[in-house]
Design goal:
alpha/beta, five-stranded parallel sheet, five-stranded antiparallel sheet, OB fold (Dihydrolipoamide Acetyltransferase, E2P), about 30% strand, Rossmann fold, 2 domains
Length: about 250
């Protein structure tokens, strides 16, 4: 049985991200997409909703105040760009607290908390356990992420990325066409990128393997940019680059 979902956010791009993620999962169904708490309230009066993805910072009525006003709310997963409300969300028995930009695998973890468990097999029967893997990218050329920049969620195609640079609490994502600065840790983004396409070569740099034009023992060249290889990454990086070179030869 599908879980009926309501998404509430005053940012259209944030709504687009959640709608896209919901559409990928067979056990979820989107019943309402709302820009504010009033629209969400009207939806709850008309539709059966199992899970509400609720933004916190919205005009007129915040997500937290809206949730407090409901006598019989559905299960709630907060979606926000702010860390400051985590304690409030737990006091309101929220299922999860997702920080924007929301990656698909983090979204999956939140959804798993509201998904009914599979029925146990009959006594004596056994079902082999399925391997736990990250969602596969069926077509890399179509894969993308959203990054928050200038109060917008900016769509970035993975195949367009040249390299990513850490700027303390921010990252710079460089493509041929543009440069995006986003409030994000490079280590968080590293976990989301496919390891066969991207490589961490320095504490401050992740590069796209297919964009490397030349490399030495100390640096890689991408376009006109020379990017250093960190000494703690050197052995692994050179092993991978040399292996790729042999495979392509």
């Amino acid at each position: 049985m599908k879980l009926r979902c309501l998404i509430v956010d005053d940012e259209p791009l944030a709504l687009d991200v959640l709608e896209t993620y919901i559409a990928r999962l067979d056990n979820l169904e989107l019943v309402c997409r709302c820009n504010n708490a009033v629209e969400a309230y009207n939806c709850l009066q008309k539709e059966q909703v199992d899970v509400m993805f609720l933004d916190i910072q919205m005009p007129k009525l915040t997500g937290i105040d809206f949730l407090k006003s409901l006598t019989n709310p559905p299960k709630v997963i907060f979606t926000t760009a702010y860390r400051d409300y985590a304690l409030d969300s737990y006091e309101l028995n929220a299922v999860d607290y997702l920080l924007k930009p929301i990656s698909f695998d983090r979204f999956l973890k939140a959804v798993s908390k509201v998904t009914p468990p599979e029925p146990k097999p009959a006594s004596g029967a056994s079902i082999p356990a399925a391997p736990v893997t990250e969602p596969a990218i069926a077509n890399y050329k179509d894969a993308f992420i959203y990054l928050k920049a200038d109060k917008k969620m900016v769509k970035v195609m993975l195949s367009d990325i040249l390299y990513i640079e850490s700027l303390k609490d921010y990252i710079r994502v460089k493509t041929d066409a543009k440069e995006i600065i986003s409030y994000q840790k490079i280590s968080f983004l590293e976990e989301k990128l496919p390891t066969d396409k991207f490589l961490r070569i320095h504490r401050s740099f992740i590069v796209a393997l297919d964009k490397i034009q030349a490399f030495s023992a100390t640096a890689v060249d991408i376009g006109q940019t020379e990017i250093p290889i960190g000494r703690f990454y050197k052995n692994e990086v050179l092993q991978i680059l040399n292996q790729n070179n042999l495979l392509e030869a």
